[in-house]
């Protein structure tokens, strides 16, 4: 029989925390396909690429690298530095590449979105329409700034000609296009939301 309300519920598949842990390790493996990198370099590249759609702190990356090395998915070596402690650099192993390729083709569960902005939009009916329009405009500007950053990255891909994108950069290019189209869809929705809010403001009786 089903569990009583408020008691507990069954979860099928990995928990969100486990999914996050799994995705982080594969993001690291993906970054290492570009070549040998130190933990610091991985963290920097993560922030400038994968970090746009999968957030992780540097403190999470180093323990995961250690686990990947212990499992034989990456190989690490110490590099001497003058006047500094040795740094450790990592490369993906053949086993790591096979592990990554298998994961890439594994179906992903639908993402459960947590978006504070949409939670606020949910309650726009509680505030004056003009105030809601102003709040919407603030979020729109943030999205437009990110879109401009994405467009600048896109321009580096051989003039954004998909046929000219090297195979090694095909995945990053496709995720970039997903980000661009996601924001474009948001901006189209924001236009619609603003029209609805302005119409609602115009129909309100004067105080």
From TrEMBL:
Pfam families: PadR, Vir_act_alpha_C. Keywords: DNA-binding. InterPro entries: Tscrpt_reg_PadR_C, Tscrpt_reg_PadR_N, WH-like_DNA-bd_sf, WH_DNA-bd_sf. It comes from Tepidiforma thermophila (strain KCTC 52669 / CGMCC 1.13589 / G233). This is DNA-binding PadR family transcriptional regulator. Residues 28-101 form the Transcription regulator PadR N-terminal domain. Residues 113-197 form the Transcription regulator PadR C-terminal domain. One of its GO terms (molecular function) is DNA binding.
């Amino acid at each position: 029989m089903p569990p009583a309300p408020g008691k507990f519920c069954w979860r099928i598949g990995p928990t969100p925390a486990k999914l996050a842990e799994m995705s982080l390790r594969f993001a690291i493996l993906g970054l290492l396909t570009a070549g040998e990198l130190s933990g610091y370099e991985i963290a920097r590249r993560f922030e400038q690429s994968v970090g746009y759609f999968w957030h992780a702190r540097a403190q999470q990356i180093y323990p995961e690298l250690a686990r990947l090395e212990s499992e034989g998915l990456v190989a690490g070596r110490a590099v001497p530095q003058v006047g500094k402690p040795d740094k450790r650099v990592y490369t993906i192993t053949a086993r790591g590449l096979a592990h990554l390729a298998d994961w890439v083709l594994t179906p992903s569960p639908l993402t459960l979105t947590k978006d504070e902005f949409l939670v606020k939009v949910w309650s726009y009916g509680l505030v004056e329409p003009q105030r809601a329009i102003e709040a919407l405009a603030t979020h729109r500007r943030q999205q437009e700034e990110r879109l401009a950053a994405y467009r600048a990255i896109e321009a580096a891909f051989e003039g954004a000609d998909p046929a000219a994108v090297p195979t090694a950069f095909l995945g990053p290019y496709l995720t970039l296009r997903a980000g661009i189209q996601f924001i474009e869809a948001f901006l189209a929705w924001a236009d619609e939301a603003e029209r609805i809010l302005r119409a609602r403001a115009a129909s309100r009786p004067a105080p």
